[in-house]
């Protein structure tokens, strides 16, 4: 039976940051579930960088069904957690069920991959204090406020936590995450 990995996300998540790890982990033979505040068809977005803009732009992205709601998740059934970015983490960090899920992975010292704005969720759980992380560069003050040491690089591994800046860094992020997954007993 394949090991299971959980992706937690919601509406306005960055399409690439959900689908790249989803497909890459399936390719490696893991079973992957997507959980959201409720079981429904999620609406993702596409963030891109365009000349003349001070920040990224946002366009409608793909849709995809959530396999489970946060309240249905048994964290003990999963070997690892993935937290995509986009705008979703801004409101998801307020979800008490999600904070319990994330806390369970950190308490059990199981691998967690986070990218872009995803670290806003782990910051809200108090599990970034004393860790080295990266995130979307505009989040550097938020990471420091959460007690983390921010590094502006493709991927940062701190024990079982692997973080990355944004979708252009996918290859480095998943390479590190798979290394951590395969070295975890």
TrEMBL record:
Q: Which CDD domains match?
A: GATase1_PfpI_1
Entry GO MF terms: peptidase activity
Give the record's keywords alphabetically: Hydrolase, Protease
**Which Pfam families does the protein's record reference?**
DJ-1_PfpI (PF01965)
Task: List the protein's name.
Answer: Protease I
DJ-1/PfpI domain residues = 4-178
The entry's family comment says: Belongs to the peptidase C56 family.
InterPro entries according to UniProt: C56_PfpI-like, Class_I_gatase-like, DJ-1/PfpI
Q: Which domain of life is it from?
A: Bacteria
Give an example GO biological process.
proteolysis
């Amino acid at each position: 039976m394949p090991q299971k990995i959980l992706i937690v996300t919601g509406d306005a998540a960055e399409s690439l940051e959900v689908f790249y790890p989803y497909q890459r982990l399936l390719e490696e033979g893991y079973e992957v579930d997507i959980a959201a505040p409720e079981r429904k068809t999620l609406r993702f977005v596409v963030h891109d960088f365009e000349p003349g803009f001070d920040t990224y732009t946002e366009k409608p992205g793909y849709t995809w069904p959530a396999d489970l709601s946060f309240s249905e998740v048994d964290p003990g059934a999963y070997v690892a957690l993935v937290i995509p970015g986009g705008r979703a983490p801004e409101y998801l960090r307020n979800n008490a069920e999600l904070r319990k899920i994330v806390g369970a992975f950190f308490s059990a010292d199981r691998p967690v991959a986070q990218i872009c704005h995803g670290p806003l969720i782990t910051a809200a759980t108090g599990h970034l204090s004393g860790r080295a992380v990266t995130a979307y560069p505009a989040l550097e003050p938020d990471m420091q406020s959460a007690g983390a040491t921010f590094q502006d690089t493709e991927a940062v591994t701190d024990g079982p936590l692997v973080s990355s800046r944004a979708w252009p860094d996918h290859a480095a992020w998943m390479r590190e995450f798979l290394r951590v997954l395969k070295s975890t007993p």
